Amino acid sequence: MAAAVGDVFFLRCTLCNPPKDKFFVVALAEPLKLFLINSEMTEFQKARPDRAMAQAEIAAAEHDFLEYDSIIGCDWLSHEYGQDTLERALANDKRYRCIGRLSDAARRSVAAALRDNVHIPGKWLKLLKQHWP
User: Which of 17, 20, 47, 91, CA to CA, is 20 to 30 A from 38?
Assistant: First the structure.
């Protein structure tokens, strides 16, 4: 399955402490890079305006897979899954799958979170901005 920018996947986050199932947003398709969806900002993020500005709002009313409004963490690019490991995860466990796409409003929120982002390295930020106008 070819992942597209804005697709949302339900996958295991092994880099989380402790590991847990999470929603991931395809930030870049080639190479595959992902953002994580979180229920809320951490205290660390709330206390730092540059981190808070890098969070994109996602409304539950526009996304059937969400139970409540959440945020997309645009201050960090996950490299946990490449195309091969994503396909393997989807094939090996039916719980893990593409569950939808971001709404237009959520896409605009991601673009805004990338605008003055100081946390994504420059070469990746330039690529991201091309896909999140």
Answer: 91
Residue 114 burial class via C-beta count within 10 angstroms: exposed 0-12, middle 13-18, buried 19 and up: buried
Whole-number Å distance between alpha carbons of 125 and 83: 20
Alpha carbon distance 40, 109 (integer Å):
15
Contact status, residue 48 vs residue 54, Cβ threshold 8 Å: no
Q: Rounded to two decimals, what is the model's pTM?
A: 0.95
Residue from 56, 28, 1 nearest 131 by CA: 28
Q: How many CB atoms lie within 10 A of CB 57?
A: 15
Please provide residue 67's backbone torsions phi and psi, each rounded to the nearest 5 degrees: -90, -25
Looking at residue 2, its pLDDT comes to: 81
Check: CB of residue 69 under 8 Å from CB of residue 58: yes
